[in-house]
Amino acid sequence: MTNNNPSKGTQPIKPNPQPYGSPQKDKKQNLVAIAATVGIILLGVIGWLAYTNMTKANQLEQTVYQLEETNSLRAELESQYNQALADLESQKTTSDELNAIIDQQKEELEAQKNKISRLIRNKGKLDKARIEIENLKAQVSGYIAEIDQLKADNEALAGENAQLSEEKSMLTADLQNKQAENEMLNDARTQLVSEKEALASKVNLASVIKMKSMKVEGMKVKSSGKAVATKRAKQVDKVKVCFTTLDNDVVSPGTERFYIRLINPRGETLAIEDMGSGTITNKATGEEIRFTQYEEVDYNNEEANSCLYWQPTNLAFSAGTYTVEIYNKGYLAGMGSFSLK
Predict the structure, then answer these.
(1) Residue 266 — left, alpha, or beta (φ > 0 → left; ψ -120 to 50 → alpha)?
(2) What is the CA 89 to chain-centroid distance, rounded?
(3) By the 8 A CB rule, do 327 and 259 touch?
(4) Which of 3, 71, 263, 269 is placed for a possible disulfide with 323 were both Cys, Cβ 3.0 to 4.6 Å?
(5) How far apart are CA 186 and CA 190, in angstroms?
(6) What sign results for the dihedral spanned by CA atoms 224, 230, 235, 237?
(7) If you count DSSP H runs as helices and E runs as strands, how many of each does the chain have, helices first?
(8) Nearest-5° Cα angle at 187, 182 to 192
(9) What is the largest CA-CA distance in the chain?
């Protein structure tokens, strides 16, 4: 076995001397290396600091630019908005309709301004804010153009209204003249009608055929069929009315109708519709009156005699004085009476 104990029979190994020079020279070389390393580090630090400072300077410059741009946009927005309000306000007139449109436009501008203000506060949207400001300018120009057009339209309408008003005044004047003429014509027509009616009434009255004489009797019918006059009311079966007319040259020849009224002692007109009774108008009073029976006579402008018989069924005559009236053309032509016991 090999003995590794240096204390027993072996000499200590001495280190070999450095082949590259002296210790002083090595130390100097180490210092140079360290200095170079430090220099490189310092250069890196300096470069990094320079880059950092440059970046911060650029960021600061960008921030200052954005701040200036923001303030510029705010100022421009306020200027444009205030000028727009002033321009719109100056467009107001006495037209409530136009003023209402302007107020609506101002509200729309305020909404647009608020939208742009939000964009300006967002630094990343300054370009969009700038575009919206240009849109605001165009919007105001459009509003002004719209208002100018409305004013022009209103002026045209005002001119048309003035012309229509003038035409209306002329038409109104013409209408009033026509109405006055119509009133005059109506008055004249009314007067003519009145005169015509009065003349017709006179002619009609003049054409009434008067009675020359009248005879009325109560008649009793015997079993033989022969009728004889009687004064006893209980015996009367029918009434005989005979009359003689006067001549009247005003009347044209032809058939004339005479209405006979038999009025009992109580003032009641004896009338039975089934026997030809009815009503006529008394032209002298305008009153509707009943008649007992009518008789038609061929009249030739001379005296004419006529008789009629009125024989009611199931009618008892009462004692007293009966009045007889004869009408022609609505006027009283003759009047008589007879009495029964």
Answers:
(1) alpha
(2) 34
(3) yes
(4) 263
(5) 6
(6) positive
(7) 3, 10
(8) 120
(9) 218
The neighbouring-strand residues paired with 258 are 295, 328
Give 272: exposed, middle or buried? Use CB within 10 Å, 0-12, 13-18, 19+: middle
Least confident of 71-85, 144-158, 196-210, 293-307: 196-210
Q: Are 310 and 262 a contacting pair, CB within 8 Å? A: yes
Place of tokens 């008055």: 187
Tokens (6 digits) for 267: 């003032």
Cα–Cα distance, 219 to 231 (Å, whole number): 8
Residues paired with residue 278 on neighbouring β-strands, in sequence order? 291
Which neighbouring-strand residues pair with 260? 293, 326
**Alpha-carbon distance 69 to 92, whole Å?**
35
Asked if the model's pLDDT at residue 58 lies above 90, the reply is: no
Tell me which of 23 and 325 has the higher pLDDT: 325
State how far the Cα of 274 lies from the Cα of 271, in Å rounded to an integer: 9
Which two tokens mark 331?
A: 């006027």
pLDDT at 43 over 50: yes
CA distances from 193 to 197, 198, 250 (A): 6, 8, 22
Residue type, 83: Q
Domains of the chain with CATH codes: 22-206 (no CATH), 211-340 (2.60.40)
